Q: What sequence folds into this?
């Protein structure tokens, strides 16, 4: 295996075919992301809390996007198309997945509790305001 910390390894545009083990492994990973997105879509319908539904919707979009783009990259790598099947696209997908996962985690752990408190305070204020009949 070449040095994976070398920039020349990642940005080499000559088509390099993956070994069958890596092809199967990447296919399983990206297909599982699509299946996880479908499973979360089913789970979302059972949720009644709007913040849980919004969090699940963000996770569904992340899984579908990375899964589909990963399968597209795998196909282009399999066909040995030089620029679109290059290794840096996989690195790009990993970086996007990590950044989006961190943002999703921060949304769930930091933003959602703030939004819940804001919604509760608005509900307390609104119960004393006059309404139309």
A:
């Amino acid at each position: 295996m070449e040095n994976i910390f070398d920039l020349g390894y990642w940005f080499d545009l000559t088509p390099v075919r993956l070994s069958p083990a890596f092809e199967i492994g990447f296919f399983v990973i990206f297909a599982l992301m699509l299946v996880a997105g479908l499973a979360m879509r089913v789970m979302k319908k059972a949720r009644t809390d709007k913040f849980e539904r919004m969090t699940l919707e963000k996770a569904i979009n992340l899984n579908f996007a990375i899964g589909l783009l990963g399968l597209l990259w795998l196909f282009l790598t399999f066909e040995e198309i030089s620029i679109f099947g290059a290794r840096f696209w996989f690195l790009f997908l990993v970086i996007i997945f990590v950044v989006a996962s961190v943002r999703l985690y921060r949304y769930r752990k930091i933003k959602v509790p703030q939004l819940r408190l804001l919604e509760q305070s608005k509900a307390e204020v609104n119960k004393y305001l006059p309404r139309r009949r």
In short: The chain has a mean pLDDT of 90. Helices lie at 7-10, 20-46, 50-78, 87-126.
